[in-house]
Predict the structure.
Amino acid sequence: MRAWRRDDAREAAAVGRLVGDYLVATEGEKGAPVTRASSLPERYRREAADPVAAFAGASVLVAVDGADVPVGCAILGPARQRRGELKRVWVDPAHRGQGLAGALVDAAIAEARECGDVALRLTVWDWREGAVALYRRRGFVDAEPWDARPRLLCLERAIDPRTRSR
């Protein structure tokens, strides 16, 4: 796991593709007939088309293959009230089963700790049972909802700042 290289056009394109795949899959799961990132609702299209601008204030973590090409990503948004927000955790289906999603989540938790956050929060659709199980194994628990969309779970994990590495 590592931070993405924002100034590398190929890497930015790879992150855009990963985020686009995530968003297309999500829209499909919600019943929307979206087959490519360019057909996404406007509020999401920018993330896939221009991830450098869309995630300017965020930390973008990538899992890479043997050729150092991003095959998974996680976005750690800026903290609000010392609570970071994790989103867009995605691993290319061809690279699943290798523990990359868990490693991305672990890296996000470590980064949030390094930033002095007291918690990390996320939302996940309840039908994504594998993702929900992964987050729960990493210590995320149900939280007071901040997004009231039906079937969207709001989860949070406390971060002990005393365990910050130096």
